[in-house]
TrEMBL record:
A Pfam family assignment: Hen1_L
Native source organism of the sequence: Paractinoplanes rhizophilus
Ranges for domain Hen1 N-terminal: 1-233
Cross-referenced CDD domains: AdoMet_MTases
Reaction catalysed by this enzyme: small RNA 3'-end nucleotide + S-adenosyl-L-methionine = small RNA 3'-end 2'-O-methylnucleotide + S-adenosyl-L-homocysteine + H(+)
Protein's name according to its UniProt entry: Small RNA 2'-O-methyltransferase
Length: 452
């Protein structure tokens, strides 16, 4: 991954003094995830560019697993700017981030013309503009298109920034906001991250119009940490509680309302043996275990890490044997047939289908509705029409969503599946509905024609 900083302040080569890196050399630094290099592709009196190149070693990412076992090898981390690049920036340009320069102290304290380029990072153009423009940057954020035969735009940007700022301010903006745009951290976020955020945000974060969003994303959506950071900034604005997406502010979170709606639907179809497909860390499984009506509960996920989290969340090792025997955790991909999933009363796909690439949906339909063919299937997914009510939300509700459907799109898909696979389908809203945009979550309840 790459980041460049350019200045036209004369003499431009003084950028080397501010960064404490000689323009005539290539500098290398060992970092926990690979090797960082600093070099100068151009260095003249009129214009000087410093490039920070992070060469990520995938084998060093073993501690950072994504949604599947090979996540440390097969992902975009070596290429798309993220907290990995921010961490390298903090190590390599430590003095410049503090605004310290032994050789050019007056220049370090002065605003100079700067251009920043990050040619590949995850995020949306709207969010990039919203984050950087209030800080005095002119923003150019160009979505990177997919290959011509596929068409459309990818989830990645080519980001350009230009403005007249102190170099230290510019680097601190990047240190904080690159992980915010990516909306992910490559390491465990502990309370000491609050200090890093406040130190790097000194002088600009408290007055930023998107400070709540910045605190929440920088602190990995850990509400207690974000609340603490905002209190220390003397901001009397609570951070909304959330699980995987921006929820509606109410006494019961949208995640809780969604689980309750699924439980109600399972009771309505008289299900006792239930599959939780794409169970993740076990949020729904925990609710199912508490209800004695469910005599057999199976959690399935493609990620062994998610299944380990679910086991810990359920405290399977501490449950009485009779309770533990009700629960099974199985690793399985929903786009492939699995005989172990056949013969159940009901299957739940709670906030799952939107994480599947659209070309793979027919495979999911075939394996779940065709091969496993439970007596009932319950599907929930975000209602894209409702997204306008989420303050600060640009794009989709979660960075891993492949699509979000309107009510009409969801109903058309569900009716087609029901017709093709021998089910009847009905629909229910989940969450407080708006008269124009509907509810935040939409639910489809499929019942096999033989059981209807």
């Amino acid at each position: 991954m790459l980041l460049t900083v350019t200045t036209t302040h004369a003499p431009a080569t003084d950028l080397g003094y501010l960064l404490v890196k000689h323009p005539g050399k290539v500098h290398s630094f060992d970092v926990p995830t690979g090797t960082a290099y600093v070099m100068y592709p151009e260095a003249t009196e009129a214009r000087c560019t410093a490039a920070l190149l992070l060469d990520v070693d995938p084998q060093r990412l073993r501690a950072q697993r994504d949604a599947f076992d090979l996540g440390q090898y097969v992902n975009d981390r070596p290429y798309a700017a993220s907290s990995l690049l921010a961490a390298a920036l903090a190590k390599v340009f430590r003095s410049a981030l503090r605004g310290a320069s032994k050789d050019r102290p007056e220049l370090a304290a002065a605003a100079i013309p700067l251009e920043v380029r990050v040619p590949l990072l995850r995020g949306t153009a709207d969010l990039a503009t919203r984050l950087f423009e209030p800080l005095g940057w002119a923003v150019t954020a160009e979505p990177i298109p997919l290959e011509p035969e596929i068409g459309g735009e990818s989830r990645y940007l080519d980001l350009g920034l230009s403005g007249t700022l102190r170099l230290a301010d510019a680097l601190n903006h990047l240190y904080v906001l690159l992980p915010v745009l990516d909306d992910a951290k490559h390491y465990w976020v502990a309370p000491d991250e609050i200090e890093k955020l406040l130190r790097s945000g000194e002088g600009w974060l408290a007055g930023h119009p998107s400070k709540v969003l910045i605190a929440r994303r920088y602190l990995a959506h850990r509400k207690a940490l974000a609340d603490s950071a905002l209190r220390r900034l003397e901001i009397d604005e609570p951070v909304k509680e959330e699980e995987d997406e921006l929820p509606v502010a109410r006494k019961a979170s949208l995640a809780e309302q969604r689980r309750d709606a699924v439980l109600t639907a399972l009771h309505d179809v008289d299900a006792a043996r239930v599959l939780d497909l794409g169970c993740g860390g076990g949020a729904l499984l925990t609710a199912l275990v508490k209800d004695r009506r469910f005599t057999e509960i199976v959690g399935c996920d493609v990620s062994s890490r998610a299944l380990d989290q679910a086991a810990r969340r359920l405290r399977l090792d501490r449950l009485p044997e009779r309770q533990r025997d009700r629960v099974k955790l199985r690793q399985s991909a929903l786009t492939y047939r699995d005989d172990r999933l056949r013969g159940y009363d009901a299957a739940v796909l709670m906030e799952v289908i939107e994480h599947v690439d659209p070309p793979r949906l027919p495979a999911l339909e075939a394996s779940v509705f065709g091969h496993a063919k439970p007596r009932a299937v319950i599907v929930t997914t975000p209602n894209a029409e409702y997204n306008v009510h989420y303050e600060g939300l640009t794009g989709m509700r979660h960075s891993d969503h492949r699509f979000e459907w309107t009510r009409a799109e969801f109903e058309q898909w569900a009716r087609n599946v029901a017709s093709d696979r021998g089910y009847t389908v009905s629909f229910r809203p989940v969450g407080e509905a708006h008269e124009t945009t509907g509810a935040p979550t939409q639910m489809a309840i499929f019942v096999g024609n033989e059981a209807a």
